[in-house]
Amino acid sequence: MILSAVFSILFYLAFAVFSVGLVKRLLLYWRTPAPLVIPTTPAPLTNIGVAGRLFREVVFFESLFKGSKWTWLFGWLFHFGLLLVLLRHLRYFTEPVWGWVVALQWVGIYAGMVMLVGLIGLLVRRFLVDRLRYISSPSDHLMLLLLIALAGSGLLMKYVWHTDVMALKTFSLGLITFNWAPLPNDPLLLVHLLLVIILLIIFPFSKLLHAPGVFFSPTRNMADNPREHRHVSAWAHAPTTADEKS
Amino acid sequence: MPVPPKEKFDVPRIEEVFSIPAIRVNAMAHSKPFVAKPEHQEALGFPGKLVDGWQDAALDKMEELLGKYRSIRVFLDSCVKCGACTDKCHYYLGTADPKNMPVARQDLMRSVYRRYFTVAGKYFPKLVGAVDLTEDVIEDWYRYYHQCSECRRCSVYCPYGIDTAEITMAGREILSSIGIGQKYANEIIGKVHKIGNNLGLPEPALLDTLGGLEEEVEEDTGASVKFPLDKRGAEVLLVTPSADFFAEPHVDGLIGYAKVFHQAGVSWTLSSYASEAANFGIFIGSYENMRRVAERVREAAIELGVKRIVVGECGHAWRVAYSFWNTLIGPFDFLDPSHPVPQHICEFTHELLNRGALRVNPDKNDDKVVTFHDSCNVSRGSRMGSVPGGQFSIPRNIIKAACNHFVDMAPDTTHEHTFCCGGGGGLLTDDLVELRVKGALPRVQALKQVIDDYGVTHMAAICAICKSQFSKVLPFYDMGMDMVVSVHQLLGDALELDGAE
Fold it and tell me: Of the candidates B85, B324, B382, which has its C-beta nearest A67's C-beta?
């Protein structure tokens, strides 16, 4: 009972840190001016084109593909495995479970394995390539290990040490609807959930900010139209006759 | 065979197959440019020498920049150390110093940012690689922010578009603001503020040089091609890098522009007040100095009553003109709105070629097999024409119109993947010659390949810095300095001139 209460509180805390921290960060990015037009060219000329560029960046990792095929492969496997795994987990937060989430269940399992392969590939590269070894901090390795432990514990629960998923669902739905329920106290589940809590808390303070960051990156989100549209920001523009009059 | 100058370093060997070097820690730790003297600093509004309490001053400046540039904040936060950029910098490939990997160069600032401006770095510095801003760190900044040519190649491959150039500019701005600017760049900016061009050429000298060029062209061709200076009411103000006035091979490019204007029958003028297209303000990251340099162009255009502004062959100048001028010195409501403002000389010439307004005989260049070096700032920081990538096709189309024999270098070394010449970003100074020679390696490697495979004799460029840099460093690799030519030299040589004998 105490365990369930502790985890419930931790989840609320983690969610609060995650959302407040992230919103504050996004507002900071939003409010900081981009004074000059600096897209990496060739760049799209219109905002619709820019949306397409960001879409390709986020979905296909277009630039990374140009940069490093191995990192692209492992990185893409990890991220899209993760996406499917997250979608699969929606079944713990919806009642009745949406049809497409039901349909995704079997894919999600394989996605979990794919995600693990990607993560291990990224970790191995970090050790094998001298240039990556040089630029890696402890946090870079720990982040990968955290995600590997997260995926590994999830898969172990599926295949080796099962947990009571119905009780877990009652617990997770309870968190959302404020009808608190007990949490099955299987050690593996507790580890899995604790890792989720850690991930949520460190998100707004770590390199995980790359996820929202890409949308704010001026080299990717600006249109190449400086001759046609005069770009001005709060502080960066010349005092011209027009400004002096107003 | 050209004799390479004697220097105290080993010139890299050109390998058959290009390979990424294994890291050699501190391989270039000895490389740093001369520090600006007090008078160079003060002319730009910077303190003359290292200020008391420089640590706080640097951190204050950093906080200011974090609030003024979204790029810096987002770039410092977003890097995941994926390593995609680690083998992309020509200075890393040429020196193997790991601090010349773009991510490591950024980390010199990121580690300080984390220590003072992020929760993780304040409480867990070791975990996230955060460090205190010590004298050693500032010395590393001075060394390695002057081993980046701000060429943006790394930004092409970064999944978040992190542009190390932005970080380098911020680093240099902080350094200048605490009193340790770079002599080469800051002295030059001071000359522009005072006299109007990087070389410090006053109006009489300019007039004399241009008069000499008129005589020279008339002697060579018989045509009376003019080089007007401060001509009021001309249609076009040409703003070109001052190296075009007498450096080789630049000046042949200027002659080419003049021939194009002559043939097109478009009246044009240079300005003695705004006699410089280069704008080193971008190199040192100083918005205010960049604006002041650009402001001269606006003033000259209004004063002379021109309708259009055309910019000569210069890489970073074109980036500043194309991407920043409208912000810095716009709006251009005093110019003819039916032409893009500003216009690149290649756009101007290309339009004339397309209209059939120029008679060109490419046979005149039959002694040459030409390749083209895409300049970094033009390729990745600007555009020409009306479609993305015009900056690649337009200069090539001009060369192909002027030469029968053109070949491109390897595709991973051209267009958006182009390598910097090794001398851009304010590094074109003799106190950095080792860096410049080593940084040229990837480009020289690709050039060697087309020389061996296709018998290339000349490499054309559209950047004053590229032209000077290659003229200096090619002899180190046993290549002739006269291989480098201006695009408009090729065209000028192939042009059938009215009034020619």
Answer: B85
**Which chain A residue's Cα is nearest to B102?**
A135
Cα distance between residue B449 and residue B430, in whole Å:
28
Q: What is the pLDDT of residue B17?
A: 80
Find out whether B122 and B141 touch, Cβ atoms under 8 Å. Answer: no
Q: Is A233 part of a structural domain of the chain? A: no
Residue A59 lies in a domain: no
Chain A interface, mutation test: which of B118, B286, B327, B413, most A Cβ atoms within 10 Å?
B327
pLDDT at B197 (0 to 100):
93
How distant is the Cα of B194 from the closest Cα of chain A, in angstroms? Answer: 20
The answer to whether the CB atoms of B322 and A25 lie below 8 A apart is no
Residue B282 has pLDDT above 90, yes or no: yes
3-state secondary structure B1-21: CCCCCCCCCCCCCCCCCCCCC
Tell me the ipTM for this assembly: 0.95
Flag whether residue A41 sits within 8 Å of chain B, measured between CB atoms: yes
Instruction: State pLDDT tens for residues B408-452.
Output: 999 999 999 999 999 999 999 999 999 999 999 999 999 999 999
- Whether residue A36 lies within 8 A of chain B, CB to CB, comes out as yes
- Cβ-Cβ contacts under 8 Å, B341 against chain A: 227
Inter-chain contacts counted by CB atoms under 8 A, chains A and B: 223
Count structural domains, chain A: 1
Which CATH class name applies to B38-181?
A: mainly alpha
Residue A185 lies in a domain: no
User: What sign does the dihedral B231-B233-B234-B240 (CA atoms) show?
Assistant: positive
Q: By CA distance, what is B152's nearest residue in A? A: A40
Which residues does B412 contact at the CB level (< 8 Å), separation at least 6?
none
Please report which confidence band the pLDDT of residue A1 belongs to, taking 50, 70 and 90 as the band edges: confident
Which domain covers residue A107, as residue numbers?
69-160
Residue of B nearest to A242 (CA): B331
What are the residues facing B486 on neighbouring strands?
B461
Confidence check: pLDDT of B496 > 80: yes
Q: What mean pLDDT comes out for the span B185-208? A: 95
pLDDT band at B3 (very low <50, low <70, confident <90, very high): very low
The backbone torsions φ and ψ at residue B463, rounded to the nearest 5 degrees and listed phi first, read: -150, 130
Q: Is residue A90 part of a domain?
A: yes
B381 min Cα distance to partner chain A (Å): 6
Closest alpha carbon within chain B to A35: B69
